[in-house]
Amino acid sequence: xxxxxxxxxxxxxxxxxxxxxxxxxxxxxxxxxxxxxxxxxxxxxxxxxxxxxxxxxxxxxxxxxxxxxxxxxxxxxxxxxxxxxxxxxxxxxxxxxxxxxxxxxxxxxxxxxxxxxxxxxxxxxxxxxxxxxxxxxxxxxxxxxxxxxxxxxxxxxxxxxxxxxxxxxxxxxxxxxxxxxxxxxxxxxxxxxxxxxxxxxxxxxxxxxxxxxxxxxxxxxxxxxxxxxxxxxxxxxxxxxxxxxxxxxxxxxxxxxxxxxxxxxxxxxxxxxxxxxxxxxxxxxxxxxxxxxxxxxxxxxxxxxxxxxxx
Length: 311
Ligand code: SF4
Ligand code: SF4
What we know:
The protein is built from eleven helices and eleven strands. With 311 residues, it is an alpha/beta fold. It has helices at 35-44, 65-77, 94-107, 126-139, 156-162, 180-185, 239-247, 250-257, 261-269, 282-289, 299-310, and strands at residues 5-9, 53-57, 81-86, 111-115, 142-149, 170-175, 195-196, 207-210, 215-217, 232-233, 278-279. The chain is 35% helix and 15% strand. The mean pLDDT is 96.
């Protein structure tokens, strides 16, 4: 298990209050992590070659632009690539966009991920996204656009509205997950459950994530805060210890190396639990299996299976 990305959700305050926000962020949100500790972690990552990229998300991280700039600078100084996720609220004109992105590019920014879809566009004009795309092309910053959709929702109009500025960007379309605000605002039937749970397998993507509650998680999934899969408190353990814990966790070992049937079969046959036949994606099943108060019930099973692997 390699972790090539160290991600920080710095705080949960946001300019928007999207109906589908997995972290239920809003202008009123107050949780944040200690920036000095973030800097310590970034500096510690210099000695850890496996970590190639430092990623920053929120909330909306451009709300604290000077801090963001400083974090990108420090990450570049220690030899890492950097990536930022944003809703683009700040890109109100090409000039304003250039001002912000020029400084970030000079500090080493490599990649910008813009979140924009029907729900974001209730708060952020699509023109802002066009500004970011134009200026990023000019400054040679890689851009991706993350679009989240519910079942039966059409996204063609939105892409048409962005127009030809979209060509240099990579587009990532994700099914909306039943977590955070989405779980409150949308009826369960709106989520696009097309995956058979028999096919579910964790596709964790190699990211170690530290969220605004200070907990360290072994992936950057939208559901991860709703699970008990955290591996420590970043105020108490070093980055090296966090990586060690993530790599020597028996539950995570089986989650990454077996299909998720490994857990559902045990859960259904021994614990008498029932799971839906269809899920949005493996992360939804992960949430159902490993809610905070449910992780422990796999302990004896996992230890038995781990011992049999060692023999
Ligand atoms: S989805 Fe993104 S832009 Fe919308 S409230 Fe959440 S963090 Fe803010
Ligand atoms: S299946 Fe679980 S561990 Fe894997 S990426 Fe999804 S939430 Fe993370």
